[in-house]
Design goal:
By secondary structure, the protein is mainly α. The protein has seven helices and three strands, in the order E-H-H-E-H-H-H-H-E-H. The chain has a domain of 89 residues. Helices cover 57% and strands 6% of the residues.
């Protein structure tokens, strides 16, 4: 099964020094490495943009961009955005709040039958609420 890898995972693997990772974080990076080796890792444009945003130097930007080159952005179609908006509106009408990108990630992954891999507790919560499979990782979740 393909895995849509969220910004939090890519950032941990590509923006942090291995020596600075906790044991749980190292386990997450090892799991990402296995998913990549299996050819199951996927990325979308909004995740790529978020990951490349906020780097301090042009050389860091270029190194990160180069590290992501092997991963083509999965195409997002008008239907993907419309489905995400429909889900977002339905959730909001029930008093449930989420960011539009988190909903896009969950909606797109669910529609394609993919798993979501994230450390973002809110995104994981939304994936569960929308019945989207998520990759089980260690307890290194961001609250």
């Amino acid at each position: 099964m393909n895995v849509l890898v969220d910004t939090s995972i890519w950032s941990l693997a590509l923006r942090r020094k291995p020596a600075d990772l906790s044991r749980d974080e190292s386990d997450v990076v090892a799991l990402l490495t296995a998913i990549i080796r299996e050819g199951r890792a996927r990325i979308i444009g909004p995740i790529r943009q978020e990951l490349l945003s906020g780097v301090k130097t042009e050389s860091q930007f270029d190194a990160l961009r180069k590290a992501l080159e092997p991963f083509a952005d999965e195409p997002l179609l008008s239907d993907d955005y419309e489905d995400a908006a429909r889900v977002y509106n339905a959730c909001r009408s029930r008093g449930l709040q989420a960011g539009p990108i988190d909903i896009l990630i969950c909606s797109m992954a669910g529609k394609r039958g993919w798993q979501v891999f994230s450390l973002d507790a809110n995104l994981i919560r939304w994936a569960r609420a929308l019945k989207v499979a998520s990759v089980e990782n260690s307890g290194a979740r961001k609250e």
